[in-house]
Amino acid sequence: MTSLNRLSAGALRRGYLRREFSPVEVLEAVAARLEETRRFNAFITPLLDAALEKARGAERLYLRGEADSQPLLGVPIAVKDNYDMEQVRTTYGSSLFAEHLPQETAECVRRVEAAGAIVVGKTSLHEFAWGVTGENPHFGPCHNPWDFARIAGGSSSGSAAAVALMVAPLALGSDTAGSIRIPASLCGIVGMKPSYDRVPRAGLFPLAPTLDHVGLMSREPDDLAVLLKVVEDAPRAPTVTALDKGPHPGSGDAMRGLRVGVLPASSSDQLDGDISRVVRAALDVLASLGAELVELDSQVFAHLLRTFAPIQQAEAFFVHHSRGLFPERRSEYGDDVCARLELSQSVTLADYLTAAATRDRLAADLRMIFETVDVLLTPLGASRTPTLASLSDGDRSAAFRKLMLSHTVPQSLAGIPCCAVRAGFDRDGLPVGVQFSAPRGADDRLLQVVDTFYQSTPAVQKRWPAR
Question: Which pTM value belongs to this model?
């Protein structure tokens, strides 16, 4: 691995503008790094030949001084393999689509390419993005960059691993119930689920359409802020962006007086001890910066898996049934996704409508909560990172899924923006993340808070896998 692989998107942009290195040199470093880390199985389909050709075009634009209109020109990005790309193999993590060549490119991928980003490959995922471990019976599991024996998390496993392995500084994933935030936490990167409908989902294979979110991943919050500006439906940012400026220190003043909603101390009893310790340390950081910690009602997020499950199941079944995939091609599915689709057939219209009404009440409750706090800080699951071998036991796998989703589905049900950021390490030296959440539409403010936390915890943030 060269020093070029370690650079953020912002540092790459500044280096290109100063002629310190070229997009071609960076793509050559990406190709070498991808080969070095191939055993982690972060990619289903590398796209290095096409990427190198685009890097040559980006290099010509920089040499001609024509880079101003493309804020990500020459920056590598990895794309989860449930986003369509025209005439590029797109599998959705399933053998049913092993040789699928879409006719159009997903809108958010089109936007990052229009901004000059270079797609270096389609990344691994849980089949049809329906799982939290990143295991895949068709293409193999994605391994954790910090410990090869452990899971990378799912479903956006490959995108998180590609960023943590320093193959690419940016990645696109998707999040229906935690599929950005869980692998971001387990791989030690920054991962954001924007507000629902802030980023177009056209061309993203749906899991549960009223819950699906486009997701963004990077190693630094600054990079996410620029990537969000590129893909969002809100008015576009000016040509000069944060990527064109030098690094800036986090300011404790940004936290002073910030009202942070936190779960009551009694909730920590439900967490693994290492997770609880890291969450407490994160709260201590916020308090030291002048934030006001406001304890929430212990029942605010209770029992929401019962609300989430029928919505996801009913919508997922409709997606697969309406496309003639299930039950017609049942035998081609992996066991876990097939079992979930089988179970989904029992969801009634009354089940779905009752859950939808409960979801509406949750959204209203959160709007009231955000009148008394500015952001929330909550755990990103109650379990440490398990080994792949341990999850061969179906009961243990189901238990892990519940321990994670209990902390990630509320934000998806409410459609509010949330962002995972590393906050510490467990006893085995594996990263542990927390998640910040904000009111719907307050995505930019959320990223400012995350960036301040990130800048205020340099000892935690600068550590990366040795390999």
Answer: 0.95
